[in-house]
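Need Replitron HUH endonuclease domain-containing protein's 3D structure for a figure. Predict it.
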Amino acid sequence: MKPNESSKEAETSAEKMFDVSLTIGIPGENVDNKLFDLLVKWLEYKAEMAVLALERGDSFLQLHVQGMVRVKTSSTRILKREIKEVIGWESNGPVGESVCLKSLHYKGLHTVIGLIGYCLKDEGASHFKFYSKNVREEQKAEGRRMHSIYGASEYKHKLELTAANILGRALQFCKNRVKNPLSITFMRCIAEMIRSGQYILGFRWLTIAKISRLRAERIWRACTSPESVEVPDVEAMFFGVETTARYFETQEQKTSAGDQDADEDQDADEDGELTGNDCQSRPAHDQHRESQSSSWMKP
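Structure prediction for Replitron HUH endonuclease domain-containing protein:
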């Protein structure tokens, strides 16, 4: 028996089952779609269980492969070498290529279910490709739920939604995740952003004057159970009847307006021109003005 055959036999005899997270990418470049297809063919006969996704992620936006595989091997080092052979990177891979394998430590989201949800985070995007083997639909659903609640904060910081950035965030989300932007409304886009678990509501949404209990409860539910958020929740949280144009001013404008109102109140107290009824009528007036200014907009 040849020496290399002997070592190969020793390696095979020491094989055991591993649950491994997998990330394959090229810094600054997109991986080829063919790479994903090659891995799928390999997993069909190699893996006991697997999920594999072609995704962009939230930060770098380059196409890369993310996955979780359950395979028999003697070490992650040997498995990495086998994967490089499968995708053709064993000797002349791209400059800077990365094949990263980590055995699951079964804590937090570094679990089978957690990584199933993590691999589904780009679901619905035009670039997204997904493969699974021996994964039940209920496991996918639980993975989505776990990632929507814990995923974004565990793997990277969540993006805060404020009155100043919500439109820009929505445009970026729509560009990266929605196949046909014309097929989704602004309300639905915000709902999907929250459901993704990658965004968190800024605290200023809770500091609106005359905030209702309904709005507060909807915001609380969006934070604790984002996957349950629907369009009516978005309408109640951000565009309820008590929201006026004043909320959408910048904090600097708010401070300036507050100082001006204080001066006006002081003058009114001295002159006797501004009554309590006048103060209470302002929100209704602002609401009427807002409805008039938006009447020309397309539905």
